[in-house]
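Usage example:
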Amino acid sequence: MPDPLSYRPALSRMQPYTPGEQPAPGKTVKLNTNENPYPPNPDVVKAIQDAATGPLNRYPDPVATAFRRAAADALGLPGPEWILAGNGSDEILTILVRGFVGENQKLRLPYPSYILYRTLADIQGAAWEQVAFEDGWQLPAAFGDTPDDVRLVFLPNPNSPSGTVLSATEVERLAASMTCPLVVDEAYADFADGHCIELVKKHANILVTRTLSKSYGLAGVRFGYLVAQPQVISQLGKIKDSYNCDMLSIAAATAAMSSQAWLADVVARMNATRQRMSGRLAELGFDVTPSKANFVWCTHPCGQHQAMYEYLKKNQILVRYMQFPDWGDGLRISVGTDDQIDACLMILESYLKNV
Ligand SMILES: *Cc1c(COP(=O)(O)O)cnc(C)c1O
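Running the assembly step on the lines above writes:
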């Protein structure tokens, strides 16, 4: 008898994506998944409370119009038709892969970068290929030379785990030589000095994704979006679930986009902490990659990164230990509050005394 549970071969073959550890709320100092250490804007909490007394027996706006208006205003875009709202930017990334990459086609990503892109290709039954960053975290011109079977290219900018940025000029140059869309994943762009939204207006094949999980402090709410030319938004809109964003999250995200002053304030505070922690890590002998995101990638000449991760964890501090085959390993430490970072640095200092 045939197996009644016979999955698509692509699914049986693939390894699942492993998200960062999410310990129960409590004593752990959480510096492992680049969340905002500060609570969200009180106006956002108020908007959720108000929405909770609204008509929850009804379906939400299927295309989150209020949010898209607020986002278009905040970003200086012509209108809501340039934006597709999603249940986290991870849903947007899924929609992009489903929209552009068929079975036996490929997506391309830089290496090392965000591992989830590979998982999305695996689910789709598509292939992926990686192009290594060069020294100094630049990409070779070959990154932009796309053969026919490469149907989508992902570029996290700022990149994770490095926190490094390619300039908009460089992104434009790479996209110009591509024969497919370039997705600039700007999950961390609010912490950097520039972004690629303006390029979307000029080039139909440049697509930008954003999230409210990091800079806006709303990882628990699940909201992200795509910025692209209107014809791209309407094609990809066919793929999403009918009601992919719920009433509470739409209310939260709309309020969040409407207070850009709050954002500027929290970003300034976190960037100051990043500056300070980078300096102190360097004093402890770490090799610190200059970051434009809300985390720092660092390695130590002693090479004991995994042991440092374990030692921090034993002391209730959770950072991300990452190991990239054929490339190397290190620690990615999220920007926390000043007190959290001081605690982390103190434990690292005590570890290094015994090295
Ligand atoms: C955190 C992160 C995201 C995911 O954001 P969500 O909106 O929470 O799904 C996307 N891309 C990169 C590079 C990230 O680090």
